[in-house]
Write a structure and sequence with these properties.
42% of the residues lie in helices and 25% in strands. With 280 residues, it is an alpha/beta fold. It folds into two domains: 115 residues, Rossmann fold, CATH 3.40.50; 125 residues, Hypothetical Protein Tm841, Chain: A,domain 3, CATH 3.30.1180.10. The two termini are 25 Å apart. Pfam families: DegV.
């Protein structure tokens, strides 16, 4: 059974990896005023953060239309028997549900939607793993089983500079945002049951990053091969410095740097920093 992998643009997978593993993208969009921009296609992360500084109002975000999904699936169905469609957490976006709906509507191809229950390049790890298996000839059921296994080893923690973005976007409760801003807390956040919730309250950015480093260490000390990604919102130099530190501490972990692109950056704001990992 010939299988192809689709993911949405919030995976922020480097172009060379997408090409190498034939991973297909469906874009989410950010909306400034009356103008919508498809991320990774019509707006890049660097442009996005500059635009946010110039605009008075924060942008909003929107998921792909069901019709876009159906069109993509049926086009892929001309060459493939099955589509593994891998998406950001259904707790923060309707994109996964859109894939489910479109998968039932698409003709000539079997669609297997997968909810990563997370986002960004951690989501990308799932897509790359699925695409590798597809290239090796694995069937869709086997690939889906592998993705479920990976969930048991996946963790990610992140912090934001300004909780108001999450609050206004409805991704964190108002009370939590108010408490955080009053105390100048840099809360560590993570996904639980598909939604973003506080993990620990930490006073400074430096201490928050140190705590995330320790959390990785708790899993890395087992010595098993792991892959991890540093994710930043327009803080590349800081990410590079953190990478050096992490690589010296955990030689059994393969690290890369990625970013919070326009859609996720809308909800986290500039300055956000995260780290995610899973077993290889």
């Amino acid at each position: 059974m010939k299988t192809v992998v689709v993911t949405d643009t919030t995976a922020y997978i480097p172009a060379e990896l997408r090409e190498q593993y034939n991973i297909q993208y469906i874009p989410l969009s950010v909306i400034f005023g009356n103008e919508a921009y498809k991320e990774e296609l019509e707006i890049q992360a660097s442009d996005f953060y500059e635009m946010v500084k110039r605009e008075d109002k924060l942008p909003t975000t929107t998921q792909p239309a069901t019709g876009e999904f159906v069109e993509l699936y049926e086009k892929l169905g001309q060459e493939y028997d099955a589509v593994i469609s891998i998406h950001l957490s259904s707790g923060i976006s309707g994109t996964f549900q859109g894939a489910v709906t479109a998968g039932n509507m698409a003709e000539g191809v079997k669609v297997y939607p997968f909810d990563t229950e997370i986002s960004c390049m951690i989501q990308g790890f799932y897509a790359v793993e699925a695409a590798k298996l597809a290239q090796e000839g694995a069937g869709p059921e086997q690939i889906m089983e592998r993705l479920e296994d990976l969930k048991t080893t996946t963790k990610a923690y992140f912090m934001v500079d300004d909780l108001s973005h999450l609050q206004r976007g409805g991704r964190l409760s108002g009370a939590q945002a108010l408490i955080g801003s009053l105390l100048q807390v840099k809360p560590l956040l993570h996904f639980v049951d598909k939604v973003i919730v506080p993990f620990e309250k930490i006073r400074t950015r430096k201490k928050a990053m140190k705590r995330i480093t320790e959390l990785l260490g708790e899993d890395a000390k087992k010595g098993e091969p792991m892959q991890a990604v540093i994710i930043h919102a327009n803080r590349e130099e800081e990410a590079k410095e953190w990478l050096k530190e992490l690589e010296s501490l955990y030689p059994n972990v393969e690290f890369m740097i990625s970013y919070f692109g326009p859609v996720i950056g809308t909800h986290l704001g500039e300055g956000a920093m995260g780290l995610g990992w899973m077993k290889k």
